[in-house]
Design goal:
Blueprint: E1 3-8, H1 15-31, H2 35-38, E2 39-44, H3 50-57, E3 68-71, H4 88-93, E4 98-101, H5 104-109, H6 114-126, E5 130-135, H7 139-143, H8 147-159, H9 164-167, E6 171-174, H10 189-203, E7 209-213, H11 221-225, E8 232-235, H12 242-253
Parallel strand pairs: 1-2, 1-8, 2-3, 3-4, 4-5, 5-6, 6-7, 7-8
Helix pairs in contact: 1-3, 6-8, 8-10
Bound molecules: 2-phosphoglycolic acid.
């Protein structure tokens, strides 16, 4: 199984910066095609740069054995009076075949709820996009011993309306809130075993992939990929430079990380 190694650039990069990154990535991946036998890369640019990144990736964009391009968010309705929003058909038109749903920052700052994640997941599968559902608990929930229940509430709430076939297209990214971003602290492998046991028991083999995210670096990627149930990594800061992302792809493709 190819490992999913992807990055969301969050609210970073101009169109010019995004083009430069994508051009470099295309050149590297074209030179090292064997890497694509072992990893499934994906990039999630800001919406303003989606079309440009898709164009720069050329024949690698969204092709089997190539790189998947995603959007960081989209509305559940196909069109209408929703000022400031983008619809799934619109991000699809700009090149996205994957859609990030329910990232902690959207839940925290923009009112994303389990209910809205469920509507977005259903809209994504209706349009043939891969939903990348992000879940994760706070420190308080973890300390109260309620992580497993909380994660299952988030996933079941978002995914319960799907058919078996639709479920097989979903990617779940487990990203504990306390491990994300500049304020986060890297998780210890031991802290991630139970959540992945729970997720793998419920979703392993039934979904496209289970990913880990939160303070991933080239230095800890290998041990994170070794956690049972983990099929890939979802990365922020460490992959915002092309060299950082390439390092991560190399770690994931290395033969010593079977
Ligand atoms: P980080 O972000 O790698 O910068 O911690 C991860 C995420 O928010 O998905």
């Amino acid at each position: 199984m190819r490992r999913w190694i992807g990055t969301s650039w969050k609210m970073n990069k101009t169109i010019g910066q995004a083009r430069a990154y994508a051009r470099g990535l295309r050149a590297e991946l074209s030179d090292r095609g064997e890497m694509l036998d072992r990893v499934q890369p994906f990039v999630i640019p800001p919406a303003t740069a989606l079309a440009a990144v898709t164009e720069e990736m050329g024949p690698l964009a969204n092709m089997a054995g190539g790189i998947r391009i995603g959007a960081q968010n989209a509305h559940w309705e196909d069109s209408g009076a929703w000022t400031g929003e983008l619809s799934i058909p619109q991000v699809k038109d700009a090149g996205a075949t994957l859609i990030e749903i329910g990232h902690f920052e959207r839940r925290e700052h923009f009112g994303e709820t389990v209910e809205t994640t469920s509507w977005k997941v259903q809209a994504a599968v209706r349009h043939g996009l891969t939903p990348l559902l992000c879940i994760g608990e706070s420190t308080q929930i973890r300390e109260a011993g309620k992580t497993a229940t909380f994660l299952l509430d988030q996933t079941r709430g978002a995914l319960s309306a799907l058919t078996v076939e639709q479920m097989s297209r979903v990617i779940i990214a487990y990203e504990p809130i306390w491990a994300i971003g500049a304020q986060g602290r890297p998780a210890k492998v031991g802290e991630l075993r139970e959540p992945f046991d729970v997720l793998a028991h419920e979703y392993g083999g039934r979904t496209e992939a289970l990913l880990y995210g939160g303070s991933v670096t080239p230095g800890n990627a290998s041990e994170l990929l070794g956690i049972p149930g983990v099929n890939g990594l979802f990365v922020g800061r460490s992959a915002w430079t092309l060299s950082g992302y390439l390092e991560l792809l190399e770690v994931a493709a290395a033969p010593e990380n079977p």
